[in-house]
Amino acid sequence: MEEPIENVETGVVKVDPIRSEVIPLEETSVSMQKKSVEYSLERRKSLTARYIYGFVFLLTNLMAWLIRDYGHQALSELHYLKACGNEGHDCFHIMGVLRVSLGCFIFFLLMFLTTFKTSKLHGAGNTWHSKWWSLKFVLLVVSVAVPFFCPLSFIQLYGEIARIGAGIFLLLQLISVIEFITWWNNYWMPEEKLKQCGFLGLFTSTIFYIASMCGIVLMYFLYAARRLCTLNIFFITWTAILLIVMMVISLHSKVNRGLLSSGIMASYIVFLCWSAIRSEPAIEKCSPQKAAAGNGNWTSVVGFLIAMCSIVMATFSTGIDSQSFQFRKDKVQKEDDIPYDYGFFHFVFSMGAMYFAMLFISWNLDHSTKKWSIDVGWASTWVKIINEWIAASIYLWKLISPVVRQAKVMDQEGEIHYTESP
Predict the structure, then answer these.
(1) Where is pLDDT greater, at 142 or 413?
(2) For the residues 257-271, what does the mean pLDDT come to?
(3) What is the pLDDT of residues 371-392, one digit of tens each?
(4) How much of the chain, in percent, has pLDDT values that exceed 70?
(5) Which residues contact 365 (CB under 8 A, 6 or more apart)?
(6) What pLDDT shows up at residue 278?
(7) What is the structure's pLDDT at 224?
(8) Percent composition of the chain: helix, strand, coil (DSSP 3-state, to 5)
(9) Count of CB atoms within 10 A of residue 243's CB?
């Protein structure tokens, strides 16, 4: 029987159990470093890709606005399309916005269907999400062009469905905002510092509460100066009540969550109330703003551009915040994991396509809106007010839900102890 040959070199080696080969650890280390560099490059491309998608979303917003306000002058050839009706009326104004929105929705829906199972940076889904931009540009052009060949009845049906999709987007945005507020509160005022009352958190919460109170007073002065403005008085008063309720519950001994999160949330719902009242049709007795004549003055133009950028930023920030919607928050991030959930990202953008359509047509499928206006009308007002109330309800539930669950657990333990006792 032959004796095994001993390696006279003293270098460190590694034995591969499958191939029975001796592999130096130095080569293994180099290989791991190469993979680490590759993963880093792929992650960087993935993070850059989300900004490109955000830019695509902004372009479709601009396209929808141009077709709504200036489509007749710029795209007069659309009357040759049978689906656009006589003189192309069915492809301009409200119907034009819905057609562009449908195209944007189709594009991001296809991206969602092709990437929602992606989990690793070396997968095909990551390559499709972060590369192949020429092919995706063609896909975008086709997606936006197809709705202009669809019949009017189909576009109207999409408009009804878009209301639901826009509502889903608002709900996702609310959850994302509330989770961010919770994270902010835990970061600046963790539970171990609540008793010591951290100075930074206390100072910040005071600033937010002062801003909220000033906002309430200012809205009373600007939008509810007369007793005839009963609806505005109701909106503002109910917002003030919600503000006080959130503060009291946050300071309750059983909740004890501090004032920072409730202060930020108070400022947020005051902003939603202000935005809702600003969306009311201009009425001299209840609003300081008058209906803009012609194509809009500089204030309406600046407000319109800010609102459009806000749509894109809200969609972008919600899309990358997939962690707020995970049931397991303790999952360890591995080196080859994707930096954010691609499927959720594209799903939010597809719902955002429906949302910007509703803003451009003011949630109304029957009446066209004025130039340089966005999200104006009673429908928009009530949507924002309901959004405010839902936001306050979700936040209050997050405050009291731990107490409710703890009470249920104690009741169950008491029942078990009672049944086990003789």
Answers:
(1) 142
(2) 84
(3) 777 778 888 889 999 999 998 9
(4) 73
(5) 94, 156, 159, 160
(6) 85
(7) 84
(8) 75, 0, 25
(9) 24
Q: Report in angstroms the alpha-carbon separations of 126 from 32, 58, 115, 339.
A: 20, 23, 7, 11
Q: How far apart are CA 235 and CA 243, in angstroms?
A: 12
What is the rounded distance in angstroms from the CA atom of residue 81 to the CA atom of residue 100? Answer: 15
Instruction: State the DSSP H helix or E strand holding residue 207, giving kind and residue range, or none if neither.
Output: helix 199-223
In whole angstroms, what is the distance from residue 70 CA to residue 383 CA? 27
Global pTM reads 0.78
b (16+ CB within 10 A) / e for 221-235: ebbbeeeebebbbeb
Phi-psi map region of 12: left, alpha, beta (phi>0 left; psi -120 to 50 alpha): beta
Q: Position 366: which residue type? A: D
For residue 62, what are the contacts with CB-CB under 8 A and spacing of at least 6?
308
CA 233/CA 247 separation, integer angstroms: 21
Q: What does the alpha-carbon distance between residue 305 and residue 285 come to, in Å, rounded to a whole number?
A: 27
SS (HEC) of 70-97: HHHHHCHHHHHCHHHCHHHHHHCHHHHH
| Mean pLDDT confidence for 349-369 | 86
Higher pLDDT, 259 or 238: 238
Are the C-beta atoms of 176 and 318 separated by less than 8 Å?
Answer: yes
Residue 108, pLDDT > 80, answer yes
Radius of gyration of the chain (CA): 28
Measured distance CA(244)–CA(238) in Å, rounded: 10
pLDDT digit string, tens, across residues 42-97: 888 888 888 899 899 989 988 888 888 787 766 666 666 777 777 667 788 888 89
Position 188 scores a pLDDT of 66
What does the alpha-carbon distance between residue 338 and residue 36 come to, in Å, rounded to a whole number? Answer: 13
> 263-273 burial by CB neighbour count: b if 16+ within 10 A, else e?
bbbbbbbbbbb
Amino acid type, 163: R
Q: Identify the three-state secondary structure at position 21.
A: strand
Nearest to 42 by CA among 338, 341, 343, 346: 338
Backbone angles phi, psi at 222, to 5 degrees: -90, -40
d(CA 216, CA 203): 20
Q: Which residues contact 12 (CB under 8 A, 6 or more apart)?
A: 24, 25
Sign (positive/negative) of CA torsion 132, 133, 134, 139?
positive
Residues contacting 93, CB < 8 A, separation 6+ = 68, 71, 368
Q: Are 125 and 117 in contact (CB under 8 A)?
A: yes
